[in-house]
Write a structure and sequence with these properties.
Radius of gyration: 28 Å
Order of helices and strands: HEHHHHHHEHHHHHHH
Helix content: 55-70%
Number of helices: 14
Strand content: under 5%
Largest sheet: 2 strands, antiparallel
Strand order of the largest sheet: 1-2
Length: 321
């Protein structure tokens, strides 16, 4: 005869909880995931296709208009050439007119073909090598233009992104990484410029007469108006200096805040061009890596679709049919 005991059943033996199970992993692992997500958060392939086309189509314009002096400087005597550190590392030969002509023809042929996305790796590497060499020649005669830093990085990372079409909505981590590299390079142009100001001129750069001197030396009629208002120039120096120091913040902004940051820098470049004729177009091209181009493509497709529907309706309602 069985006996029953009253009271609750004995509690099961507690199993120890794995370390970090409640918090979703260790802080280090969580930070690593956040960093990876920041670099590789997938974006539509069409976004990359638009940016790739802009960069590669800009290359011919750059070598024919912005850096056209390369062919002239390559004809100078060899003693005028002062190779940059990268050119010395690569043991590049002293520029000649033959080298400059060859690089120009390679870029004029390969860059537009690379803009189509076909043979993206092989053509992209050809463009990257030739364009980098062209820029090293351009900067080997005493003047280094930091506005080309981002676009040189861009032509090297674009071949890694894989295939992408203008109507490709497939999320891609490779495209995300490529665009992120371009964003970091473009924003680094500003933050490194601030560091160069501190290193070469000290903190007094913003309180001096920097803008006044620049406008007096090469100012446009629009820019010379500010010579009568030095307080505005000094205020502008502080705004730009602080904005350059804080430029990396834009890498973490979203939506309207990001749009506001981009508009600020575009306004800065427009003002610089109007006042002293400096445009920074290569950097502006790389800032397009922030733009959600897939939305632009969708809206353009929608406009074309509505126009076709309107034309079809007009054809149906036309008299005599």
């Amino acid at each position: 005869m069985s006996t029953q005991t009253s009271g609750p059943p004995p509690a099961a033996e507690a199993v120890p909880e794995p370390v970090g199970a409640r918090g979703g992993g260790s802080p280090v692992r969580g930070a690593a995931k956040a960093v990876r997500r920041w670099w590789f958060d997938p974006v539509p392939g069409s976004r990359l296709a638009w940016v790739r086309a802009l960069v590669y189509l800009f290359v011919p314009y750059d070598i024919l208009v912005i850096t056209q002096d390369v062919k002239g400087t390559a004809a100078l005597p060899a003693e005028f050439y002062q190779p940059t550190m990268v050119a010395r590392w690569l043991h590049l030969p002293t520029p000649t007119t033959g080298i400059a002509d060859t690089l120009q023809w390679i870029l004029l042929i390969a860059a537009p073909l690379a803009a189509t996305g076909r043979f993206h790796r092989s053509l992209g590497l050809v463009v990257a090598g030739a364009f980098t060499w062209w820029q090293l020649i351009n900067m080997g005669y005493g003047k280094v233009d930091h506005d080309h830093f981002a676009i040189v990085i861009a032509v090297w990372v674009l071949p890694t992104a894989g295939k992408a079409r203008f109507r490709d909505d497939t999320p891609s981590e490779a495209a995300a990484w490529t665009l992120r590299c371009m964003q970091v390079a473009a924003i680094s142009t500003y933050s490194l410029a601030a560091w160069a100001k501190i290193r070469e001129a000290g903190w007094g750069w913003a309180s001096g007469a920097t803008f006044y001197w620049a406008i007096e030396r090469r100012g446009t009629p629009f820019g010379k108006w500010f010579l009568d208002h030095p307080e505005l120039l000094r205020f502008g120096q502080w705004v730009i200096f602080l904005a350059e120091l804080c430029a990396p913040v834009i890498l973490f902004l979203r939506r309207w805040w990001l749009a506001a940051g981009l508009v600020f820098w575009l306004g800065f470049h427009l003002a610089t061009w109007l006042s002293i004729g400096i445009h920074f177009l290569p950097t502006i091209i790389c800032l397009t890596a922030f733009v959600p181009w897939e939305k632009v493509g969708t809206r353009l497709s929608g406009l074309r679709g509505s126009r076709r529907r309107e034309d079809a309706q007009a054809a149906v309602l036309a008299p005599g049919r």
